[in-house]
Amino acid sequence: MDQFLRENYTLLNDGVVILAAMVGLILYRKFKDSNAKYFIYFLIYAALVDFLGGYPSFMDKYEFLESIKSILEGTKFERNFWWSTIFWKVGSVLFFSFYFHRILKKVRFKKIIWFEGWLFFSFCLIYIILNWEQLFTSSFPIISILGAIIILSCAILYFIEILEGDRILKFYKSLNFYISSAILVWWLVRTPIIFFDIYFSREDWDFVILRYHLYLFSNIFMYLSFVIGMIWSRPENE
Using CB atoms within 10 A as the burial measure, which of 29, 57, 179, 195 is most buried? Predict the structure, then answer.
């Protein structure tokens, strides 16, 4: 089982991300008049970020990319830390801040999300500028932690809002419920792992395997939840 996951990790991970984007495109007409269309745009964005972010492994695997590999070798762009930090760790959090600002009804909650989103963006911009060299050689745990706090805030405010209204009666028909539940679980699972990344080495295969399992299954859970939500839910009147 472990060997199968190691050998097919990229296929399984990329496959479920692409599946969610494809289902979103297929069902776009269903959600085109609702805020959910922005979520479908995000799924396409996530698939592109995930695919293009694998460029270091592509250059090692495919000979026709040898010329590009030789150009990037020894440069800041040889590794993809910068890509995942900017386009996922920062980009995805900013999207969900935008998305929840649109779907929340209470003005007070919308203001909280708006403030948190701009505060997060400002911090990330300043932090990256001050740690410019490290952007290309390592990840930034502080950005991951702050991003998780923003996501938790978005999901919790959404759940509070539906509990206080009559939408709780039909929560299972709302795509936003599936989105909120999935990202809440994903960030709760993934964020604590960064505290143990110092153990991520070939000398500790137990942790390496556990890390791969958590990363893979959390991704599968989140994107399949998105797929189920898009298929099962109904567009909301907004």
Answer: 179
